[in-house]
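1st attempt posting a full record on here, be nice pls
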Amino acid sequence: MLKFISFGSGSSGNCYWLSTATDALLIDVGVGLRVLKKNCKDYGVSLSQVQHVLITHDHADHIKSVGSFSHEYHVPVYATSIVHDGINRNYCVAKKVAPDMARELVKGRTEQIGDFRVTPFAVPHDSSDNVGYFIEAGGVSFCIMTDAGSMTDEMRGYISRAQYLVIEANHDVEMVKGGPYPQFLKERILSATGHMNNHDCGVAIAENMSEQLRHVWLCHLSEENNHPELARKTVESVLRSYGIVVGTDLRLEVLKRTTPTGVYELT
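the predicted structure (as tokens):
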């Protein structure tokens, strides 16, 4: 069994907890440590249990507290070499990851990290580099792909293998087009290296999921260009058009931007 918690999912800060009975890791540390400590205490877990950190990419909302966390808890940080370079260059990361705590991951190469078999894979985004993670432990498969501008065949393959999936449903296309953002920012969001919209997220799930997929969480929703209920209804409608019934064939939930989820048990 694995335990999963989202401590925040969106441009205000991203951080996800995954643990076995004897090991724990964080995926991204883009929320403040004070808030993170409080949330852990509320849910009966402790950051002192965390033995590894995985980083997806070097945008501030995913890394701003990673150096402070690694230093305080003496925890190694795993990322591609390009992402590590990006963390060192990012002025939003006040305390950098110490060189002896930096561990390099290579996309497509599986590593045994504590109790977890971790495979990073490329995800299109306009950061210096970006990866999703396919994680296996205790007979459970978990996949996360966030800040994804578009789908690749490799990403589709990992969806097909996942029992539990965290996937981006960032925006509604019409809300972006009709919204107040400047044109350059609209084009960036809608591009193949921007963010995935609700409809495309639904199609990605529907066209690639297997019967073993049990639970999907929609992540990284835009505050300005989406609503949780709109994201859920859009994805649910797309799934229904493929003959997939939410609540029967799989569970579907939306991760909140700044509110923790509570603890999910993944079996």
